[in-house]
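hey
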């Protein structure tokens, strides 16, 4: 008789020189491993222990790698901008940026272009270590976008964005009833694709584009379907000025009165708020998606008036987004996390705003909370989804490896991402997406980007003579 048990079959044993678990104790395990069966993490521990305990179909990683949870991008425009990345000049004022550049560009996308745009965004996120995202809002063709995302294999919450007040651009003008109808339709249709990886939320443009009946209906539909709701608010002074002119109240006060603000809501930007609005944000438990690159590129004054340190001190869950590719040309959440760690250190002359560990928590655990997925993603813990990222440390920015959390935020970026699993499936290997034909994607993206910008009629404002 012997009490030595036969090794248990698993699909993967993923090994690394350091495993950054982001578990409750924030354990970092040297010479560690994660065992994966199906879509789930079944064990986390020392590699030597897990090798004895499990018989994997395949071993990934090794001593050259750092293993982390996938990051969570809580605000990204996967359509409308990825195929026109950088076309808008970076010296364009906010109002001109939105109304004279972005709206006309968004208006010309067709269904195939929106599908490709979503896939390009998803591939960029996966290859830079983001495994889950919250969409800012598909412009028009959600069914095609969902189909493309399922093919790529990322995890996300999506929705056609709705508004009912602006008359232009006419191609996506919506009556209140039509906007509510879009929300109802997508929540009914896109509930649980691909093992639950892709499903719909109530996603509004926000700002001053929604009537009170639309705000209320979107909230009611979110509650009825048990999903979250997201929208933009107060990046610049336009929103508070608009709400005060229309309702005599600042945005948070009005939205709280409408019953919109609660812990199922993700609100993006939230730069121009006063202290009473900060109180409401803290009291209602609404989540805030902080998009630092947009603030920098579109001149929001974030380091002068932003209250992100106060939000964190008050217990508000702040997560991170990369936003649109004309406000943040990249979709690599490492780069946005670097800014989150750095901007308020300088603005407040205080290195505690924010330590690397806190910034990385916002990019993983904070994102999971914003997306109401804290029991499934954001950490490497048995029972959670197998969304894993292997960072290759045989790169100049990773050597020497002496303080993994400091280096994840301040040294590394998405270029060091080697292998990515989502739901226990390898979707990136050796830096390349395994689920789609990348060569075809580069060619199509170029062709479509040139076609969209040409059809928009907007001028090429590149300043240097190009010949
Ligand atoms: Zn946005």
């Amino acid at each position: 008789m012997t009490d030595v048990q036969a090794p248990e079959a698993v699909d993967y044993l993923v090994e690394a020189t350091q495993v950054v678990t982001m578990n409750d104790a924030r354990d970092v395990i040297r010479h560690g491993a994660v065992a994966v069966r199906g879509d789930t993490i079944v064990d986390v521990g020392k590699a030597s222990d897990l090798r004895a305990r499990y018989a994997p179909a395949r071993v990934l990683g090794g001593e050259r790698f750092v293993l982390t949870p996938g990051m969570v991008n809580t605000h990204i425009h996967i359509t409308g901008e990825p195929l026109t990345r950088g076309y808008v000049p970076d010296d364009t004022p906010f109002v001109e940026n939105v109304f004279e550049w972005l709206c006309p560009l968004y208006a010309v996308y067709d269904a195939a272009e929106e599908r490709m745009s979503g896939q390009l965004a998803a591939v960029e996120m996966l290859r830079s270590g983001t495994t889950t995202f919250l969409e800012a809002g598909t412009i028009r063709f959600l069914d095609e976008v969902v189909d493309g995302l399922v093919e790529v294999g990322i995890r996300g919450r999506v929705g056609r964005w709705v508004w009912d007040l602006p008359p232009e651009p006419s191609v996506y003008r919506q009556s209140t009833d039509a906007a509510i109808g879009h929300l109802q339709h997508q929540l009914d249709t896109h509930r649980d694709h691909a093992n639950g990886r892709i499903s719909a939320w109530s996603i509004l443009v926000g700002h001053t584009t929604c009537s009170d009946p639309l705000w209320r209906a979107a909230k009611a539909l979110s509650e009825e379907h048990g999903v979250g709701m997201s929208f933009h608010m107060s990046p610049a002074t336009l929103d508070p000025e608009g709400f005060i002119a229309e309702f005599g109240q600042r945005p948070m006060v009005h939205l709280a009165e409408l019953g919109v603000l609660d812990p199922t809501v993700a609100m993006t930007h939230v730069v121009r708020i006063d202290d009473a609005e900060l109180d409401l944000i803290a009291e209602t438990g609404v989540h805030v998606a902080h998009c630092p690159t947009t603030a920098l590129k579109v001149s929001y004054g974030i380091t002068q008036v932003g209250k992100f340190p106060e939000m964190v001190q008050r217990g508000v869950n702040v997560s991170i987004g990369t936003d649109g590719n004309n406000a943040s040309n990249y979709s690599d959440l490492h780069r946005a996390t670097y800014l989150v760690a750095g901007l308020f250190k300088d603005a407040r002359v205080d290195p505690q705003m924010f330590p690397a560990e806190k910034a990385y928590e916002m990019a993983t655990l904070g994102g999971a909370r914003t997306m109401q997925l804290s029991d499934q993603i954001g950490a490497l813990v048995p029972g959670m989804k197998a969304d894993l990222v292997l960072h290759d440390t045989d790169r100049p920015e990773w050597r020497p490896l002496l303080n993994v959390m400091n280096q994840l935020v301040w040294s590394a970026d998405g270029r060091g991402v080697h292998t990515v699993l989502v739901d226990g499936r390898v979707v990136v290997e050796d830096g390349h997406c395994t689920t789609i034909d990348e060569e075809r994607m580069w060619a199509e993206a170029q062709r479509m980007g040139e076609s969209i910008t040409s059809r928009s009629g907007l001028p090429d404002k590149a300043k240097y003579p190009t010949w």
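The first strand starts at residue 8 and ends at 20. Residues 438-456 form the longest helix (19 residues).
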